[in-house]
Amino acid sequence: MTTATSYGAAHAALLKEGKKIQIGSHDGLRSRNSVGLSRRHVNLFSVSLPRPNPLIRAVSSPVKPETETKRSKVEIIKEHSNFIRYPLNEELLTDAQNINESATQIIKFHGSYQQYDRDERGARSYSFMLRTKNPCGKVPNKLYLTMDDLADQFGIGTLRLTTRQTFQLHGVLKKNLKTVMSSIIHSMGSTLGACGDLNRNVLAPAAPFARKDYQFAQQTADDIAALLTPQSGFYYDMWVDGEKIMSAEPPEVVKARNDNSHGTNFPDSPEPIYGTQFLPRKFKIAVTVPTDNSVDLLTNDIGVVVVTDADGEPQGFNLYVGGGMGRTHRLETTFPRLAESLGYVPKEDILYAVKAIVVTQRENGRRDDRKYSRMKYLISSWGIEKFRSVVEEYYGKKFEPSRELPEWEFKSYLGWHEQGDGGLFCGLHVDSGRVGGKMKTTLREIIEKYNLDVRLTPNQNIILCGIRKAWKRPITTALAQAGLLEPKYVDPLNLTAMACPALPMCPLAITEAERGIPGILKRIRAVFEKVGLKYNESVVIRATGCPNGCARPYMAELGFVGDGPNSYQLWLGGTPNQTSLARTFMNKVKIHDLEKVLEPLFYNWKRKRQSKESFGDFTNRVGFETLQEWVEKWDGVVSTRSTYNLRLFTDKDTYEKMDELAKLQNKTAHQLAMEVISNYAAAQQNGKGE
User: Fold this and answer.
1) By three-state DSSP, how is residue 302 classified?
2) Fold match between 199-395 and 495-633?
3) Any idea what the Cα angle at residue 416 is, between residues 410 and 417, rounded to 5°?
4) Cα–Cα distance between 291 and 305 in angstroms, integer?
């Protein structure tokens, strides 16, 4: 077999020797002794070199051997990038405020997207969004304070908490990129691999519990993130002039990365796992413990679940593969998909098993059409049995049968909780993850004053960690004054809702999401009241401005997916514990027509549901044909005038304080007061009053 050499290094060596290069069809580099389903090889180039067998092989793709595979434009850009450097390194030196098309693809691997404000007319004003990489959502105190500063100095004055436990910083100008990137790197942070065709941020439960299973899950997420971090140094070359600022890696990570006993690696490449071509598309991994589905486990390319013995000692992991959300409108061959069970591995094998799965996708995932390049399409095409058998070749072992697990629950970790080590943590709800204004100022003051570390959740919320019990009262007061209320004082619809940023900055957005969801939630609350649903009842609502699914709308009980200006595709049938995939219910629902669709659905849910039946379960049981009939025949709710006349405020001072808090949430004082009273009454009825 031949050695897989990097295109960039070989290209440079050949040019130096004056050799001619013949470029052929290529969809990635094949590793030494690699095993794939197809044994087709395509010569990248053929020259006379001073060693035998000078061919450099290409990655197999699941197509017929006699077919010459077309490659996407991005694959060619990666091939010629000198390991994700060129042409970004040159484009950053120009006076233009933007970078060219090839550089926009390359900068994604560095954790950034080029954007422009779509609300502005005339010439485009370009800027860059930076996304951090925070395995488990861990944010050290120093990094949080740095991100807060950078948002004010070089961004738009806000921080965005993402659905993958990271920060997004919008509005950074090209001339400031190096300053911002180097500041993040020198503050214990990174943006490397937060975007691009490689492993993205690894999710894990954000709760800082001092429990063996949680800590083991979080350590495993850290190790997987380290295993799949690029090694060729392009990131540090670009932003800190080659200075490598990295913590020491666990020896088991280094050993697993370097192991090539089953043909997984490119031995002579600066990228032993990724090679020159990296992966066909983005790759997402989540790690969790049984019952805790705070990470939307089944939406990931790989889901990893800690399995413990009766004493709580971690023994191994169940693995799930093939999840993914992205799709394309009006193209039925693209679809969201839930991960399915692959098998069980003992704990000492987890890094090798994950690496084998990644390499199977690297070698066989499609590189001709990026719409079909995610691993979910490979598994959908092959079937799980065939996929498992190929992974086992790279793993070198057979997977054991998956262990039985209890039912999943969605856990938000909002409010105050015991960590188990004498300290407390406080989970704070942040609407659509947008931290700005007084909220941002207050969070910074608290985090700085008490020297707190932070965790970001997959639901766009934030957790303050390591709080002494004596600090609880002053922190609670300060948070409330900034509108960061305890969950019992927040509308239940808001607590589980998510939205992507969409307009005005996302170039893919078709309509509003983050800016639109506050109004949508208010209107749904009004529909709840109209049809007689109680205040403490809720449904999981998620909105995205396009079908790519960044806010995972296809797992929602009620998903809004932008399909035109002020228009949404409605998805129904997800469940509160995030284990069922929603389905398309209606297309092209105009924003002003929402009530016509939602009123009959919620009205009948209120009257025809079974005991404790969620809205998602109800829609699945009843069936879409019946739901459609209800919508078409809907005549409206016969409303009766309220006989209640409540005077909520007896003094001006109380009203003004409530009004100040209400304005922070874009509500009236009366609305907020009613929410507080309703929540309190509901808590008392449920026996949960304090």
Assistant:
1) strand
2) yes
3) 70
4) 10
